[in-house]
Amino acid sequence: MSRILLTGATGFLGANLLKRLVTEHDVAILSREVSSFSRISNLSSQIKNYRIESNSIDSIVESFRPEVIIHCATDYGRKAVPPMQIVEANLILPLKLIHAAGQFGVKKFINTDTFLDKGVSHYSLSKRQFLEWFKTYADRMVCVNMVLEHFYGPYDDKTKFVSFVINELLCGKERIPLTPGTQKRNFIFIDDVVEAFMTVLDFPFGQDSGFKEFFIASEQTITIRNLVEHLKHLCKNTNTLLDFGALPFRPNEIMDSSVDISAIKALGWKPAVTLEEGLRYTVESELSDIKT
Questions:
Q1: C-alpha closest to that of 156 among 124, 188, 111
Q2: Does residue 54 lie within any of the structural domains?
């Protein structure tokens, strides 16, 4: 049983991870006054909660003395927020955490990263900037970088692509503007992502420091066009216009997202949920939520 400090616990990934962590570990989380606890309200008695506004990062790490820090907090910048807000969440906060980790004997720091090119957005740029800093601390602890492909599942934020499309289709929107949809993407179900984190958390790397990087993805790629058309079928929607080509590709768009997951598989992990199973379950869950 380890002492684990988790950031981003009220978000989609963090909340799903927290549900697993509390069954096996002593967990503390970082939160803000504006954080919504709707996803983890039933776990409040099982965790220690530190408010960032009233505690410095150094004092939190010194007080809780975690053996592991898992950093999931992220600002995607999807709501036209100022760049400095994105930098604060994706660069400044984890820099404070990794510095405190070095000061107070944290053994392992697990960072959540993106496969996106740094030129795609302020979000991807800030994540890449932290990664460069992150590597410089690998002489003091085991630094693990988890590079996630598009993860999805029931009750994700409606700004995330899969959830957005499902919600639009289930609500019977007249039209969904899309790019041409020829770019290939890898989509991985949230439960598989959680299991990947648990695998890395529990794995004895056999050393006190060093940098490790793992790509977390399924073993199937699909074009955006095929994905959206299949979601339309699963949602039993016959009316919504899928307006492919109405939007341009983003600058530095990756047209074929394929990664090597052999490193994480070597630790004993492999994706267990097929794309068909994951999408069907997500659609059914979202539809059930709408009906209630």
A1: 188
A2: yes
